[in-house]
Every structure is written in C-alpha cells, then in structure tokens.
Amino acid sequence: MSTADVKNRKKSSVKLIILIIAIGLSVLSVAVWFLGKPIRRHNKAQKDVNAILQALHGYVSEQGDLPKGSFSVICRLLRGESVEGQNVKHLDYIEAQGQEVNDKGEFLDPWGHPYRISFNKKLQVYSCGPNGVDERGAGDDIVAE
Fold this sequence. Notes:
- The chain has one domain: Glycoprotein, Type 4 Pilin.
- Helix content is about 50%, strand content about 5%.
- It has helices spanning about 5-65, 70-80; strands at about 115-120, 125, 140-145.
- Strands 1-2-3 form a three-stranded antiparallel sheet, covered by helices on one side.
- It is elongated.
- It starts with a helix and ends with a strand.
C-alpha cells in the first residue's frame, strides 16, 4: 500500500468520524428541543399569568375598580377596548398576539385553553396547565396572585 493510499484512508476515516459526530449532535439538539418544550410552555404560562395580573392591577389603579363581565369582556377591556361603559379612555393594559387570543377574544395559554381569573378571596390569574383541567389554581394549574 502506497503512502497516498494511507493518506486517503485517513482522510476518509476523519470525514466519516466528523459526519458521525455531526449527525449525533443534530439528533441530540432535536431531542433537547423536544424535551424542553414542556418547560418552555410552563414558563410562557407563568409569564402570561403574571402579565395578566399586572394588567388587572393597572386597570384597578387607573379605573378605580376591577373590570366587570365575562372573561372575554375583561380581556377586551385590558387590550384597550371600551365595553359596557368601562375603559372609556381606551387605555391599553396588555398586548396579545393573534395566536394568544381565541375567537371570543380570550387570552389563551400555551396549551390553547383560556386563562382563568378568580375574584374570590384574592385576585388570582391562572392557567389550567398541561392537563387542561380547571383545578381552581391547584394541581398542575399555573398561578399568579
């Protein structure tokens, strides 16, 4: 075997090793992305409930009282609409992208379910979490109070 053949085999072996490493890294990055998806959804829901709660506090501060009506009415009020004589100044308290709002105007969590607002003993905003079951802020629900 000539030295040229040995060099060609070494180059081919190095190229094969680089290819195997590249494929392995690609598979690993896809796996990490998929495994991280639940964490990203949870973090997004936590950020959203905190933002909605902050918007409600801003509304109370400006308007003097909590918004009244269904969740869709409250969401519209927080986005700057005037509904049923409320928010007549059209003040914006929160922004929502198209995919974050359903056809009723309700804010949606990362699983596609409307967020919830509870005005019981304390003001609470929550997502029903990955299972989509309304556990009133318990279980896997993601809460801001």
